[in-house]
From TrEMBL:
Transmembrane segments: none annotated. Pfam families: Beta-prop_RSE1_1st, Beta-prop_RSE1_2nd. Residues 563-772 form the RSE1/DDB1/CPSF1 second beta-propeller domain. This is Mono-functional DNA-alkylating methyl methanesulfonate N-term-domain-containing protein. Residues 57-454 form the RSE1/DDB1/CPSF1 first beta-propeller domain.
Length: 1315
């Protein structure tokens, strides 16, 4: 059907005949286009948790928190306190850590003084723990714990912390019922609510009866404290600990520069003197408050005290050190050091102290003259402090002075200043202290540009370095080795998608590297987590070692030490190792009683017996007697075939032999009286015996390989057999690791038995766990985990009767410790990292075999393990608790930027050396700089064009990126560098080599260079162009092939510099320093325009795009934006609606600002198939990579997206936890009637969408849910929220206890280690 109508053609109306069906069809298509589905912002929450805490230490304090005889030291950081004990070997042992304060720690000091062997660190009234017999005892003898877990007496000192929330926290350590140290705290809240609480300055008077806290200006508060004797009496009577007796605030006019208590004169211990240095109108004045003990503080501070102006040359002192003589003090300003006396009776007298000038050290990183930063008073015989004082003083460039002050004829003699020649570690901040040992002084120094250190100083003896401490320094960049850079990046052609729970191809975990330290101590830090194993002995023993045994000497020619027995192909070797001094000697085979003529299969040492089984003989040693029995003698000439394996338990032996393909199990018992073997039984089995072990009641467990399948056979002493076909428990005869598919399992290589569990290791990298399970029809539970691709060796660290067995698993030359619960179920898998304290820049040595040995360890919380590492034999002390085991690769400059190049297989590092920028190409394994700068002709130069050179000092690299340049189907790869001085440099690279030694070098040179008039803050390579921000302008350039230079295309003005640039969905994301996120459309020719912005103006630092819950929808992603105010926002960009602002999905408030986001598939191999998305966890990327963020203080956060159901449950737990004094002891919400409290989460798209994973960690460790959620109404909400997870599939037929256990399982799932 057709009709005529008027239509507009060429600007004129004309009459045309139109087909009706065509009109209807066109209209239908238009309506369909109009009805295109508009995406809505995703609804999700964010879980964050701390992966690595900061190494930043604000103060180091010697404090006897347990007893007089425990030489403890407190390391106080922003949010945690760690107590360590100084040991006789000169090392620090971790004792306890507390990080649940919920508020930043502003300041810390020690309450109480001690006298040790007549020594003290001042003429203080001494308080010591004195039981009835009058002797001081260590805490282990004092802590007679009753049902309430109380000690018999307080320790001699308390640690006082001042929190940002205004609370003063008094704490000490006691021994818990399980024998571990635990903190006991008592909090005193701030006297009044105010915007800023006192604590910027903190001081305790010498009598420990008064404490003063001050704000930075205008206000200080003095607290009167109970005497320590009174507190101890109250404690022993069972009363609560209330240290604060009264307090008095006092206002002043001006900035409080310093505050300290001065020492009274000898015999006048009741005299209290408080000194303040107040700055007003640029002038420094002193004011002192004096009173007697027990005086009314209201009267003392009721009137204004006279102020004395300080001399011009001593204005604004950075340190005020009170001396023990004449109530004097030393005032240290930037340029002068002066002794101040007579300050209590009129205008003070200042005497300039002239010390030997010492130039600034080369490690100093500041611009101006270095300042004096910290001081400490050593322990001396108490009477000496009446006429003498001793001070250690540190300068921030690493200089340490020792000052001695003497009182002669009533006047202070000129102080003697001595510099410690060898103590210098670079920049020193406030973290510095001195410990007491009988032989001298122990100095503990915390560095802020390099590692801290421990030194021993003895008079007239050269200083001795005892060890290093983890250091804090600004972390400005970090990188993972993940080859993907976006959340939905397609996989490389001909490579799998790497989705862990779908792909059977496991992969090595990505590695994490960060910039750290500064100056000559600058380094790249590889972040690692696990159990540290300190290498104590390293022996080069040759190749082909199979197993090793370490046991005390049982040889008459050697009176002490140990023997090390090694099994090698065709023979064995034994070494003698003396204890003190350590010495290693290979023993002559003719002088030993061991069989060294063949490979050793098993060896064991008991107190009265040593047994060695080789492929030719069995050796027994006992009571200076020995026997060696050949297998011909044992079988009395009967055919026995070849010996393949053996094991020993107690006085029982099992040996496997084979003749051709026929295998036998042979048992023997040991007659210790006759020192001989008594034959047991010989049992033929169907299949190849690949390994065997002995269990309880002398049962033999042997692994068989028959018809391409693994079996486990149990043989009792009576000959009864039980055979388990393991393939029946492994679907498809493949590793049940959570993958769709798997590689066929190869024969069993090792087997370990305990009463609760049997572990089997395979030649293809699996660990199979067998446990009794009454819920199964056959009463057996079998699990299989993939640990790698090579042969698995398993050994046991504890005896077979241990209630919680532990195992050492070596595979792929990595070492893992498995920890089990009493049921035998493996609960923890911890990577073990051997570390050489003298070489922290090297990779951990590869581990081929590991076993625990019975050697006394200096680390009382750990054990000693024996490691075979290729041709080396190592002894290492294994730590008990996991933690950071970082590796530091020196770069001899200050690193500022970092990129990992998959093309070059190296780290590209921007460093600053000698105040000039440079590039380093770092081999991540060897730590060597493999880069060679050249000019375009290939001639070697010191720096490539544009970096370094004359006239380019004080420059720095602001931007560093790789650029994959695509043009006409071709691909070139460049490195982009932008600098502070306004240079944009395109760098070409080429691999050169290998060299004669097999090493590879990388030649690099400047391809293009552009000079600009302002700093180039960021740079991005995109297809055939370069995008970069100069000042506040974004530029687009392209390579002009004809002129061979960068040609300008267009520009876009911003309101502030763009520090980060990304291309997402064809649009440019520019993160600006003041205006947060701006989305720029740059697709239309020479024009650009802003299409979306962040409605919240943030001082942004970095951004990252993550999935928004819809993996098939690129426009549903979320942009994570980190700001300088410790916030992280999740923004959704309405791509389909131009000119519409971004919408906030969630917001989080973190302990510190995130400096960089990175993605990485960092989970170890055994976790890659286990961590399947469940309970409502949303994947961050299409391949489920982890999202990590690094902060300036070196701490690292992990980010997890949550769907609404699991967010609602976890946020409910957090809301309930906020009312708990157990989980938030100092910042909990005070609820008058908890029954009326409604913890239901609110979807506010703000901070309520954030879940604190660190709180969940405390809740899980304390098993606090039953106490937290006990009221009927709250428990009903608790059950309802769990019922809603995944359509209730987890809660069918659950009792009350089942709901709690499910909640713990969920929390544990979200807290699994990501490294």
């Amino acid at each position: 059907m057709a009709f005529q109508t008027n239509v507009l053609r060429g600007g004129e109306w004309v009459t045309e005949t139109v087909d009706l069906q065509a009109v209807l069809k066109a209209n239908s298509n238009t309506q369909a286009h109009k009805r295109q589905r508009l995406l809505k912002p995703p609804q999700c929450g964010l879980l964050t948790r701390t992966v690595f805490e900061s190494q930043l230490v604000n103060s180091i304090l010697p404090v006897r928190l347990r007893s007089l005889h425990h030489n403890d030291v407190a390391f106080v950081s922003d949010r945690a306190v760690k107590i360590c004990e100084f040991q006789e070997d000169g090392q620090l042992r971790d004792i306890a850590r507390k990080n649940d304060f919920g508020s930043r720690i502003k300041n810390a000091c020690v309450l109480g003084s001690v006298k040790i062997d007549g020594h003290s660190n001042g003429p203080f009234p001494q308080f010591t723990v004195k039981p009835e017999d009058g002797d001081d005892l260590p805490m282990s003898e004092l802590s007679t714990l009753n049902s309430s877990n109380r000690m018999s007496s307080l320790p001699p000192q308390l640690l006082i912390l001042v929190l940002d929330c205004g609370d003063c926290v008094f704490l000490y350590l006691r021994t818990a019922s399980d024998g571990t140290p635990e903190f006991v705290t008592s909090a005193f809240p701030s006297p009044r609510e105010q915007l800023v609480y006192p604590g910027f300055h903190m001081a305790v008077d010498p009598s420990s009866r008064y404490m003063a806290l001050a704000c930075a200006k205008d206000l200080f508060v003095v607290y009167e404290l109970e005497s320590l004797e009174k507190l101890n009496m109250d404690f022993m009577n069972g009363n609560s600990l209330d240290p604060v007796r009264s307090y008095r605030p006092r206002t002043v006019q001006g900035v409080i520069q310093n505050m300290t208590f001065l020492h009274p004169r000898p015999g006048d211990d009741h005299h209290i003197i408080l000194l303040l240095v107040i700055v007003r109108n640029g002038k420094s004045r002193m004011v002192t408050y004096e009173w007697e003990l027990e005086n009314n503080l209201s009267i003392v501070f009721s009137r204004e005290k006279p102020r004395h102006r300080m001399p011009v040359e001593h204005q604004m002192p950075v340190l005020v050190i009170p001396l023990t003589v004449q109530s004097a003090f030393i005032a240290i300003s930037q340029d002068q050091m002066a002794l101040c006396t007579e300050g209590l009776h009129g205008p003070p007298h200042f005497e300039i102290l002239e010390g030997p000038a010492y130039p600034t050290t080369e490690d100093y990183q500041g611009r101006n003259q270095p300042l004096w930063t910290a001081w400490a008073r050593p322990f001396r015989l108490s009477p000496e402090f009446e006429k003498n004082d001793y001070i250690y003083l540190t300068r921030e460039d690493g200089v340490v002075w020792y000052i001695q002050i003497t009182l002669d004829s009533g006047a202070i003699d000129g102080p003697r200043l001595t510099r410690l020649q060898d103590v210098g570690i670079g920049n020193i901040a406030n973290a510095f202290t001195c410990l007491y040992v009988r032989e001298g002084d122990i100095l503990i120094i915390g560095g802020n540009s390099g590692p801290g250190s421990i030194w021993k100083h003895v008079a007239r003896v050269r200083e001795e370095k005892l060890g290093e401490l983890p250091a804090w320094s600004p972390t400005v960049d970090f990188m993972s080795t993940d080859e993907f850079s976006t959340w939905n990046q397609p996989a490389v052609e001909n490579k799998p998608t790497m989705v862990p729970w779908q792909d059977s191809q496991l992969r090595k975990p990505d590695r994490l590297f960060a910039t750290s330290r500064r100056g000559n101590k600058g380094s790249i830090t590889e972040y690692r987590y696990g159990l540290k194993a300190d290498i104590t002995l390293d022996i080069l023993c040759g190749d082909d070692m199979k197993e090793a045994w370490f046991f005390p000497v049982s040889h008459p020619n050697y009176s002490d030490g140990f023997h090390l027995l090694l099994s090698k192909p065709g023979h064995s070797t034994v070494f003698h190792i003396s204890e003190d001094p350590p010495d290693v000697i290979e023993m002559d085979p003719s002088t030993v009683l061991y069989d060294l003529s063949s490979s050793t299969l098993a060896a064991v040492y008991y107190e009265h017996l040593f047994v060695q089984i080789t492929k030719q003989n069995v050796v027994l040693l006992a009571h200076n007697n020995s026997t060696r029995s050949s297998y011909e003698e044992l079988w009395q000439g009967q055919p026995h075939g070849s010996v393949s394996d053996a094991c020993i338990i107690g006085e029982f032996i099992a040996i496997s032999t084979h003749t051709g393909t026929q295998f036998q199990i042979n048992t023997f018992s040991i007659d210790t009286n006759q020192l001989s073997l008594v034959p047991g039984q010989s049992i033929s089995v169907d299949g190849e015996i690949t390994c065997l072990t002995l269990g309880d009641e002398n049962n033999v467990y042997a692994a068989l390989w028959r018809n391409g399948r693994p079996f486990l056979i149990k043989v009792s002493p009576s000959g009864d057999r039980t055979t388990i076909d393991l393939s029946m428990y492994l679907p498809g005869n493949a590793a049940n690791t959570g993958h769709e598919g798997g590689s066929p399992i190869e024969p069993i290589s090792s087997i370990v038995y305990t009463k609760s569990v049997i572990l089997l290791g395979t030649r293809s990298g699996e660990v199979i766990t067998l446990m009794n399970d009454t819920s199964k029809d056959d009463g057996l539970s079998v699990e299989c985990e993939k640990f790698g691709w090579t042969t698995v060796n398993i050994t046991r660290t504890l005896g077979p009767d241990s209630p919680t067995p532990e195992f050492l698993v070596s595979c792929d030359r990595n070492l893992v410790l498995l920890k089990s619960d009493p049921s035998g179920k493996v609960k923890a898998r911890l990577r073990v990292l051997p570390v050489d304290a003298n070489d922290t820049g090297s990779l951990s040595p590869p581990v081929d075999y590991a076993a625990a040995v019975n050697v006394l360890s200096s680390n009382r919380d750990g054990s000693t393990i024996l490691l075979i590492s290729q041709s080396r034999l190592l002894l290492a002390e294994l730590h008990e608790k996991p933690g950071p085991v970082h590796r530091h690769i020196p770069v001899e400059g200050t690193p500022t930027k970092l990129v990992y190049s998959h093309t070059l297989q190296c780290l590209i590092v921007a460093v600053k050396k000698n105040n000039q920028p440079a590039l380093i190409f770092l081999d991540p394994d060897t730590g060597e700089d493999i880069g060679r700068p050249t000019d375009k002709a290939g001639n070697s130069v010191d720096n490539i064009s544009g970096l370094g050179g004359a006239g380019k000092t004080d420059d720095g690299i602001y931007g560093l990126a790789e650029w994959e340049y695509k043009k006409d189907g071709n691909v070139w790869r460049f490195i982009l560098v932008s600098t502070k001085a306004g240079r944009l440099i395109v760098v070409s690279t080429a691999k050169v080599g290998p060299q004669e030694d097999g090493s590879m070098t990388i030649r690099y040179w400047t391809r293009f260079k552009k000079e600009l008039d302002r700093p180039v803050y960021s740079v991005l390579g995109y297809e055939d162009g370069v995008i970069y921000c100069v000042g506040q302008t974004i530029h687009w350039d392209a390579i002009d092939a004809t002129e061979k230079k960068l040609k300008h295309i267009k520009a876009h003005e911003l309101g502030s510099p763009a520090t980060s640039l990304r291309i997402v969905n064809g649009k440019l994301l520019a993160l600006t320093s003041r205006d947060s996120l701006e989305v720029i459309d740059h697709s239309e020719g020479d024009t650009t325009g802003i299409v979306h912005v962040d409605p919240k103006r943030r001082n942004a630092i970095h951004l990252m795009e993550v999935a928004g819950g819809q993996l098939d929808e690129p426009m549903g992603s979320i942009i994570l934006v980190a700001d300088r105010d410790c916030g992280v926002g999740g923004l959704w960009v309405p791509w389909q609606i131009p000119k519409k602002d971004c919408e906030q999905v969630f917001e989080a408030d973190l302990p510190s600002s995130i400096r960089r986001f990175r993605r990485g598939r960092t989970r170890p191999i055994w976790e890659q198939g286990r961590h399947v998305p469940k309970y409502g966890r949303l994947v961050n990327t299409i391949d489920d990579a982890e999202i990590l963020g690094i902060s300036l203080d070196g701490s690292m956060q992990h980010f997890t997206l949550l769907n609404i159901e699991i967010w609602r449950f976890l946020r409910f737990v957090q809301n309930m936890a906020s009312t708990s004094t157990e989980l938030y002891p100092f910042t909990y919400r005070r609820i008058a009637n908890l029954e009326e409290f409604d913890p239901e989460p609110r979807m506010d798209k703000g901070l309520e969408m954030h879940v604190d994973g660190d709180m969940l960690q405390r809740c899980f460790e304390k098993r606090a849910l039953e106490r937290l959620i006990s009221l009927p109404g709250h428990f009903a909400q608790f059950m309802k929220l769990l019922d809603e997870l995944e359509d209730g599939k987890h809660t069918s037929n659950l009792a009350r206890h089942g709901y709690y256990q499910l909640a713990y399982d969920i929390i544990e799932y979200f807290l699994q280690p990501v490294l």
